[in-house]
Amino acid sequence: MAGPYRIQGETGEWEVVLGLEVHAQVTSHAKLFSGSSTTFGAEPNTQVSLVDAAMPGMLPVINRECVEQAVRTGLALRAKINLRSVFDRKNYFYADLPQGYQISQYKDPIVGEGEIVLDLPGGETKTVGIERLHLEQDAGKSLHDQHPTKSYIDLNRSGVALMEIVSKPDLRSPEEAAFYVKKLRSILRYIGTCDGNMQEGSMRADINVSVRKPGDPLGTRCEIKNMNSVRFIQQAIEYEARRQIEIIEGGGSIDQETRLFDSSRGETRSMRSKEDAHDYRYFPDPDLLPLELDPSRVAALQAGLPELPDAKKARFMAGFSLSSYDAAILVEERATADWYEVLARGRDAKLAANWMITELFGALNKPGINLADSPVSADALGGLIDLIADGTISGRQAKDVFAEMFETGKDAAAIVEEKGLKQVSDSGAIEALIDEVLADNPDKLAEYKAGKDKLFGFFVGQTMKKSQGKANPGMVNEMLKAKLSG
Amino acid sequence: MASLLDFSLVDARAALAAREISSVELTRAYIDQMAATAGRNAYITATPDKALAMAEASDTRLAKGEGGAMEGLPIAIKDLFCTEGVLTTAGSHILGGFIPPYESTVSSNLWASGAVMLGKTNLDEFAMGSANVTSYYGPVENPWRSTDAPDKKRVPGGSSGGSAAAVAGRAALAATGTDTGGSIRQPASFCGIVGMKPTYGRCSRWGIVAFASSLDQAGPMTRTVSDAALMLGAMAGHDPKDSTSAAEPMADLSAALGQDVKGMRIGVPAEYRMDGMPREIDALWSQGIQWLRDAGAEIVDISLPHTKYALPTYYIIAPAEASSNLARYDGVRYGLRVDGDSLAEMYANTRGEGFGPEVQRRIMIGTYVLSAGYYDAYYLKAQKVRALIRRDFDLAFETVDAILTPTAPSDAFAIGENEDDPIKMYLNDVFTVPASLAGLPGVSVPVGLSARGLPLGLQVLGRMFDEGSVVRAGRALELAAGFDVSAAAREG
Amino acid sequence: MSLDKATVASIATLARLRVPDDRLEPMVDELNNILGWIEQLSEVDTDTVAPLASVTGHSLPLREDVVTDGGYPDRVTANAPESVHGFYAVPKVVE
Question: Is B22:B1 a contact under the CB 8 Å cutoff?
């Protein structure tokens, strides 16, 4: 592992301190406080109830599933579940906030402190603290580019349930921030509480960035709003940290403010619409009562959780002798881990992991195919590995067979049969080939016998060539050794 | 046909069931009276065509021997209840032209029970007021005039002033009201009718334009206690669309009406005997105590020590909630828009023009008491004092079954009076606000006239969800007082 | 605590109320009058009192996760001062 992430400024090295607030859309059919649908991409204002449009006299009624999804998430983050929580109003005016307030949780969130373990490169892990998780409503959507002097408002998203998951300021590099988002996404997808689709906005992050000289107290932070790509998160942090360092080193000070990342310029800029003093005037929503959870229901939700990535990773490392790195890759997505377990069942688990990570993922990544759409199924790849294991084909041959499988979707045995690729493991046939090679190269044989050991490789190569690559390389090796020493 | 207008709700119901009168006849009589008394400005919107169509449908059902609890009875709806397809204003310019595409739960319940809608009554803007003088649609005139200054138009109280004036002036057989700090009970007292605020949670708030969500509660405004019981039964009920709606079953109110108060323990709180209270109010209260004692109740002196803090507590909590509830009136989705160069300007212009001075005052107070650095000193403090006020009542109700107090500290004042100082106006609710903060049911029953001939009411408060005791004691007062509720109609 | 004119103006901004200059001064007096009257609450000892959360003492009811509403964009925008192609339209917002 390299040393801690540092940025070199004119006055020395700087440390970056990061905290993330991730807004994850809760997977549910209906909205948090109304019965309208949460489906993405509908025509404007079609998935809007009178409650979502904040018509006079409309009232919120909470969705049980959204509450339970938040509890599941809290449990998966090994967090404290608060059996009593309160919904507050966060008051501010914005065109896509129809009530003039967002129903959120302020002093008494549904989930308290927890943690996430990050899998860093090199097999290291880092535990990041979770400050809290609370439920809140999403706002609608403003479109600013449809008309020269107007903004258009679509309330389809208005009222969709979000979980705001707030980390402690434990992250220290853009890369750690990226791993944090990936790991959180992985957990949410495992338990089915958020689809993690960042492009559709199902997961968005606000990043609190500050810089300091190592060992100094925390600096003033800026918040970069609404990041929806892991790559941009890294870029934005790098830019913002350098910006802050330049200001401080130039004798200035950082204004605590909200900033936006402009991905086309790779820069952050101050958000004009948020210039107003933040005075959200939180108070308990009088349309709602305190939310009370039944401990037995929480226990049932705990019991219903699937095996989580960390547990699965530990099991893969212990049971399949996988490296931390390989195990982390295989458990990131539940579907990948399931796929792997089908593949590894009854086979050399390490060989299976190598094939899946190197060959299969390599082949899938190039055209950008999802594992779920892989032309080679787990059973089919398993068939190929079986042919290697029983010596039917060599590892080298297997790569060609795999390429063909990926191309055509045929199974391994059929391709081996069709192409006559079957490995020759008949000792008589191999001996005949060796004899031919030795007979064809009397000079080389003499040199070898005279002590030029390096020529052994030449004889192996010639024998393999003569077999058109089909001879079992292990047998060729052994038999040649016996012959040449005789 | 003055006799048609003299029917109480209960009597009209009986006459309809017996086919002595038709709903169309009764409804027409009211439509005529609405027109004749239009100058009082009790209604913002009259819906005579709708009323007659509903009355005809009721007559058809009645002819078949069918019909609900309110079948064929013409009533008015406070213009704070959203009514599908009918202009709903909350007495505010900012809701100009708003036609709700939905019907409030309470009005739906009433229509489902067969009631006939005469129109939408005037009110203080967003129900913020105690004299119905803050309405964008102008003040409402109380049908009562004083004997000493008969030319002076008097306020009907507020905020449900239009409903109270309509019921007292025979322009509606009954009406809905809403009560946040006294907005049903105080105008009932000013107009000589019965006004009942049930327990918080009894009537669904769904579809009622919100003022202060933790306090708002709908209730009936009628000419008799029996009428109030009948109408409350039709309005109330658990509503899954309102998270604060209660599922507690309602006591059998008609049975409660038939019970006398023998053995009931009636509390009389010392703290309601306030400095500067008119002697005639005090005297009437004493008279009320005597009536109940004579009827067999046991009178118990009680203490509600935090009473004097109820009004200031209320004037933190109600404006705070209102400032947030009224944020949705922004010129984007409905109602008034006053354009501006930017979104923020459009908001400020719309809200600056759309809300009247009292509403703006309360939004300002509410915004301030919730703002950073002041929340604990004001809002949180108020919610703590509110807990103490509730505790006072809880302790009192360990020894009494109901509490008797005056409804209001004065009779109806003239339009234009008490408008120089907001606090003077706020003091109108001094006796009604404590029970609102505690969520308790209460009824104002007209029991007498002031020296200058204006009606005065007494208030009965009960335990949470104990409307039965409220109705029982209220009926006893009504019987003892023998107040002539038709006096206003004769005056007018 | 007494409000000055600047504070009242900033509250008005926070509440999105345009208060004409000639209304500002009287509003300062009105609000201070009301706040001064409210101040009497400070007499009450509430150190050990929990704020009232709900008068009924009920806890929050939960509804099932079923789509039961929406699908009526016309009703949603019917009362809008300005709507275009199914959207609400407002003066352009610069982020």
Answer: no
Q: Are A105 and A87 in contact (CB under 8 A)?
A: yes
Which residues are within 8 A (CB) of A27 and not within 5 positions of it... i.e. 6 or more apart? A69, A192, A193, A194, A195
DSSP state of C23: H
* Architecture in CATH for domain C5-43: Orthogonal Bundle (1.10)
As a 3-state breakdown, chain B gives helix, strand, coil percent values, each rounded to 5, of 45, 15, 40
Task: For chain C, list the contacting chains (3+ Cβ pairs, <8 Å).
Answer: A, B
Per-residue confidence band for B2, with pLDDT thresholds at 50, 70 and 90: very low
Q: Which of B335, B353, B423 sits opposite C37 (nearest CB)?
A: B423
Confidence at residue B63, expressed as pLDDT on a 0 to 100 scale = 96
Cα–Cα distance measured from residue A317 to residue A123, given in angstroms and rounded to the nearest whole number? 11
Residues 53-72 of C with CB under 8 A from B: 53-56, 58, 60-61, 63, 72
Nearest to B295 by CA among B404, B137, B389, B377: B404
Averaged over A168-197, what is the pLDDT?
A: 97
Q: Is B240 left (phi over 0), alpha (psi -120 to 50) or beta?
A: alpha
- Within 8 A by CB and 6+ apart from B236, the residues are B109, B198, B202, B203, B250
For B114-272, where are the E strands, in sequence order?
116-121, 174-179, 194-197, 217-222, 265-269
**Helix, strand or coil for residue A30?**
strand
Secondary structure (DSSP) of B95-125: GTT---SS--HHHHHHHHTT-EEEEEE--SG
Which positions 206-225 of B are in contact with C (Cβ < 8 Å)? Answer: 214
User: What is the count of residue pairs from A and C with beta carbons less than 8 Å apart?
Assistant: 143
Residues 6+ apart with CB under 8 A from C72: B101
Residue with tokens 């060992």: A215
Q: In which band, very low, low, confident or very high, does the pLDDT at B260 lie, cut at 50, 70 and 90?
A: very high
Which domains does chain B show, CATH number per domain?
2-259+471-491 (3.90.1300.10)
Question: Beta strand B217-222 with B194-197: parallel, antiparallel or unpaired?
Answer: antiparallel
